[in-house]
Amino acid sequence: MSITIKLFASLREALGEAELQLELGALPPAEVVDGAIRVDSIKAVLSARGADWSDAINQPNLVHALNHKVVYLDALVKDGDELALFPPMTGG
Amino acid sequence: MSITIKLFASLREALGEAELQLELGALPPAEVVDGAIRVDSIKAVLSARGADWSDAINQPNLVHALNHKVVYLDALVKDGDELALFPPMTGG
Amino acid sequence: MSVSLQAEPIDIAAEYAALVGKASGAAVTTFTGYVRDHTGEDAVGALELEHYPEMALTVLQDLGRQAVERFGLINWRIVHRFGLLPVSETIVWVGAVADHRGEAISACEFMMDTLKTDAPFWKREQGPEGARWVASRAQDGERRARWERSEGI
Amino acid sequence: MSVSLQAEPIDIAAEYAALVGKASGAAVTTFTGYVRDHTGEDAVGALELEHYPEMALTVLQDLGRQAVERFGLINWRIVHRFGLLPVSETIVWVGAVADHRGEAISACEFMMDTLKTDAPFWKREQGPEGARWVASRAQDGERRARWERSEGI
Fold this sequence. Notes:
The complex is a heterotetramer, with two copies of chain A (92 residues) and two copies of chain C (153 residues).
Chain A: E1 2-7, H1 9-15, E2 19-23, E3 36-38, H2 39-47, H3 51-57, E4 63-66, E5 69-71, E6 76-78, E7 82-86
Parallel strand pairs in A: 1-7
Antiparallel strand pairs in A: 1-2, 3-6, 4-5, 4-7
Chain C: E1 2-6, H1 12-21, E2 27-34, E3 38-39, E4 42-43, E5 46-51, H2 53-71, E6 75-81, E7 83-86, E8 90-98, H3 101-118, E9 121-127, E10 130-133, H4 138-149
Parallel strand pairs in C: 1-6
Antiparallel strand pairs in C: 2-8, 3-4, 5-7, 5-9, 6-8, 9-10
């Protein structure tokens, strides 16, 4: 099961990565239900990469977009999905 | 005492005049106080010109502008002033 | 910060460039009104716009000043046409420059709403059954009245 | 009824002509946002605009569709830039065409307010003391929330 993670703006800058593929084979199988995994479980996996990741991924107001739509932490991510994480948007 | 009367739009069309000079010498002197006369007294003078004038001048919603500012019926008109009468504005 | 009353078509690109060129605001809003080919279900062939030139100038200049005071505009411009206007022609163009978008958008709306009821112009529509004066709309009076009640943006 | 995400400057005169040329509405409102030379009291030298292209396109197209549904727009256009933008450059241009002015003005405001908080762009300001990410403003969230509560115009 492979998920594309995209990082933008201050998050991208803090972590030095714009995009990564997350293979979820390493995850406790209990987290994966019917081939899907919650957004907060993915954030837990990313947080485990180190203190800088934990700080950046758990900052308040982080926005999660699944396949280009903003979602809550309970959204279900499936194989091949794209999950983007970024700070509040400041366009216009 | 001479006042310029201007008429616009449907009022101008109904009365066939765009502008006239009103000499108020013919008015009952009681109407003129300290060299000034109220807008409604001027309307009474104009209404006396005939049935078409009376109808047009006394139509509801008529707007009165004294020297380019909208005023109420109690505004005081003086020698040399310009009083315009017209239906509600429909610009833009 | 000026008004133009004109018979000629409005050169929107030139007006926009002049409005923004003189001011370094971050937010610009414009409104353009065109002659419609219908009013409700009735076809309209052209519009005649009668106006009271001296008063129109006074009212519109005062309107711009009010917009500066109320919304802190950096620049504004009102262009209003008179005379015979075929369908699809421009009637009016209003532009507002401000530091922030709320001010620019509200100022533009304020100027248009106030202009509709307070500036001495009168529309006469030419249709298939002859010409007729356009009646003022209660809705315009209501939009105008909102600005009396509200404190701006 | 389209979106453009572009690095190039916005040709406002051309955008306006294309917007109106395709539609016979009577009321057209536009908004243009420019790079300010200051934020509060701090000088700004230029703006870097980062974006998430696929999502930005999806969000802005959906925003236009919502504006049509809500305000009955006849035409609309959203142009948003990305990349390095010097002071005084255009950032965003929004245009709305409708039958009446209330709809055109409100739609323009709705699109700008929603775009600010919902479209994936991030601003980074270059100032005398280096570059910094622009924080989102609570005020923008409040302006956005008004459109959830209200029924439109």
